[in-house]
Amino acid sequence: MLKNVRDAAAVPRYDYREVLGEEAWGKSQLNVSLYALGIRKDPNLRRKVFINYRRADSNPSAFLIRSHLRQELSKEDVFLDHESIEAGKRFEEVILAELNKTKVFLCVIGPSWLKIRDEETGQRRLDADGDFVRREIEVAIRDDITVIPVCVEGADIPKKTALPKSISSLPDSNAIFISQDDIEHGISKLVEIVRNHLKNSSRRLG
């Protein structure tokens, strides 16, 4: 590689802090790069709440949960893809960067969550290679993020046998069920659970 260089000592050696300090390295790109290298943020330093949902299944419930959470936490600490990703940003890069900052992962499951299919191929969305709902859950499980299944609108937690193998451990996480008949109370209970998880993380840091 250096055969055409007379003096190898003349090859510039960059300090990684100098490189990462350049303007070209935005926070999202840096998080994604670290993630790709297998460098994860310490779970005890994470502060975000990530809302995972399928728009065709539980869009109203996801937005209602988001609204309640933001009354207790800052807007920046609650991630919902539809409104948290700026125009022009690469979707996958933003998702990975946000998951690397996530402490609590809410998997919102509605009545059609398990069976929604692609209109063109007929394939179940959950089984598709590019399905972000499944891929986000995969990352959360792999990175030991606190995963809370949130069953809404009468939905039940799926059986392991009905799930792709990569997320078959999802039912192992204790779920919370939010009834439409008492939705305000159910979401208030969820908010309190989330706050306790974040509070416990802060205590460990101290």
Word description of this protein:
The chain is an alpha/beta fold and 206 residues long. The protein has one domain: Rossmann fold. It has seven helices and five strands, in the order ααβαβααβαββα. A five-stranded parallel β-sheet has the order 2-1-3-4-5, sandwiched between helices. Helix 3 links the parallel strand 1 and strand 2 (78-79). Helix 5 runs parallel beside helix 6 (132-142). The longest helix has 23 residues, at 183-205. It is globular. The model is unreliable at 1-20 (pLDDT under 50).
From N to C, what is the helix and strand string?
HHEHEHHEHEEH
Largest sheet, if any?
5 strands, parallel
CATH class: Alpha Beta
CATH superfamily: Toll/interleukin-1 receptor homology (TIR) domain
Mean of all residue-level pLDDT scores: 79
Question: For the CA atoms, what is the radius of gyration?
Answer: 20 Å
CATH architecture: 3-Layer(aba) Sandwich
Structural class: alpha/beta
State the strand order across the main sheet: 2-1-3-4-5
Distance between the termini: 49 Å
Task: Please give the number of β-strands.
Answer: 5
Q: Tell the overall outline.
A: globular
Q: What amount of the residues lies in strands?
A: 5-15%
Low-confidence regions: 1-20
The number of distinct structural domains comes to: 1
What is the CATH topology classification name? Rossmann fold
